[in-house]
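Morning!

This is the sequence you dropped in the shared folder:
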Amino acid sequence: MIQKATEPLSKVTSNSQFSIKAALEKKEEIEKDQFAEVKDENLPSNHFSQTDVDREWEIFLKNLAKTDTFAYNAINSFKLEKSDEHQIVVKYSSETAKAEFDRLSIEFFNHFRHKVNNFKIEIEYAVDITIKKEIVTKRKIFEKFVEINPLLKDLDDLMKFDLT
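The structure's back. Tokens below.
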């Protein structure tokens, strides 16, 4: 007959020298110190021009077109304009496109701040419906011509043009 133990035969208790709880608390303290308040008065604020903004925006869009075409299509119509010495106005056409831009704006503006050596740049957003790109189809072109010359509508009824 085989005897079974009801309790462990030996009770070895040893405290580990590594405490997960202590490590997490220490890590939180370090993170708080790393993100201490940065005084912006000591940061450089060199001059930049609209040409600098345009050039860096074009480079950013070219790289984005290669890596993320969805995001590129959403934000390629945005206009970035320098409105003041330390202010850039971002003009966008829709809120959904702005949401996509918000995801990528940190990357772009951090790169731009380092490129022009100006860390006091402020970003302002403005809706501009005129920059929205409309896809012009053959049907829309034909309808514009019908407004100019109504006889084209009769010709379309007679000939049954394929404007798909």
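Headline: The longest helix spans residues 95-116.

More detail when I'm at my desk.
O.
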